[in-house]
Amino acid sequence: MINRYIMVTAIAFTFASCSKEIEVKSLNFDVTVSKTNGAVSNTYTTSDSLNFAFKGNPDVITFYSGEINRQYINKDRTVADGTPILQFTSLRATGTQANSLALMVSSDFKGIALKPGSTIRDTVTTNANIATAQWSDITSQAALSTGAATPSGEINLSSFANLGKPVYIAFKYVAAAGSVQNKWTITLLTLTNKLADESIYTIGNLGAPNTEIKNYGVITYSPGWWVSYDEVKNANKYPWVFTAGTSLVITGAATVGAATAPAEAWAIMGPINLKKVSPDVGVGLKSISAKFENYPYKYSSVTLSEPTFVASNNVVNSSATVVKPLSIKVTKP
Predict the structure, then answer these.
(1) Does residue 214 belong to any structural domain of this protein?
(2) Claim to verify: residue 307 and residue 239 sit in the same structural domain
(3) Helices (H), 268-307
(4) FRET pair for 293, CA 20 to 30 Å: which of 16, 104, 187, 300?
């Protein structure tokens, strides 16, 4: 009986303890800044060594310096107006057929279709989507190979970014019957969004859809490439071959005798938001285990917005946060 009483009491105490939520610690936090020699100003230069002094002891402190790609005001930004630039290198080998490679862009392509309830591609529907989409031919903007590896130059896609919707970028291969058909190799492809502050974000490349793209420490993923052809237009079934991270290659008929039919094949990347950027991230200065009283810092570039510290105390169900912007700026000497 005594044992039963002890057990019931213990259980009751446990439930009572669990019913109490852990309260987050109150948060008092402030920051001041000066040169390491103690001089205080509203304007500093990149030649100054600064010291940020803290009052309070929060669990976590994160620092947004206000420099390019380190701005608190951009911590949730995922799109920004810039200049989207496509670049690649092409190599044409075998054959001399003219106009066998076209660079295309579409904003209404319905995408690669999958069979219902599966991850298997529906080739018929995909080819129908390609055929019905409106494709803009921008081949004239690129320098293409006539026999040696040739950089395309910068291809400005701003007119498509201004449409306000994602686009698809494609290489269309066409070959005529009756003569040796060209082989094309595409390498070193990048698609970037360059902002007015000179920051450059990679938003596309020759990576597979699960390939990481890292911009200023933030990871996103390549949109990937898909290849397709319609056997009605490509009876000899010459495909684009995509090697993730390396190249796109298509080889048509290598001899006149093999060139018994025309060929058409597509390699498509997308969908892509041409205004895509990565959010700015701060630098973690302090974890819960350490007391942190000051942070020395020397700017390597000017500030574009206010330096900001974010302090927080955190428990399982709640948190307390204080955001401390500093009304200073850092300029060149």
Answers:
(1) yes
(2) no
(3) none
(4) 300
CATH number at residue 54: 2.60.40
- Distance CA(57)–CA(292), nearest Å, equals 7
Q: CB neighbours (10 Å) of residue 238?
A: 21
- Regions of the chain short of the pLDDT cut 70: 1-24
Say which residue the tokens 């390699």 belong to: 267
Do residues 244 and 38 make contact, with C-beta atoms less than 8 angstroms apart?
Answer: no
> Residue 290 corresponds to which amino acid?
A
Backbone phi and psi for residue 36, each to the nearest 5 degrees, phi listed first? -65, -15
pLDDT score for 23: 66
Look at residue 199 and give its three-state secondary structure. Answer: coil
Domain boundaries, position 52: 25-77+280-331
Neighbours of 4 (CB within 10 A): 8
At residue 78, what is the residue type? Answer: T
Q: Which residues of 104-127 are buried (b: 16+ CB within 10 A; e: fewer)?
A: bbbbebeebbeeeeeeeeeeeebb
The string of pLDDT tens digits covering residues 37-73 is 999 999 999 999 999 999 998 999 999 999 999 999 9
Statement to judge: residues 168 and 292 lie in one domain:
no
Cα gap 74→327, rounded to integer Å: 17
Tokens representing 31 are: 């920051």
Report the number of distinct structural domains present in the chain: 2
Residue 10 is assigned to a structural domain of this protein: no
What token pair was written down for 88? Answer: 């690649």
160 burial type by CB count under 10 A (0-12 exposed, 13-18 middle, 19+ buried): buried
221 sits in which H/E element: strand 218-221
Please indicate, yes or no, whether residues 152 and 228 belong to a single structural domain of this protein: yes
CB 190 within 8 Å of CB 253: no
* Residue 171: partners with Cβ closer than 8 Å, 6 or more residues away: 101, 102, 103, 104, 184, 186, 240, 248, 266, 267
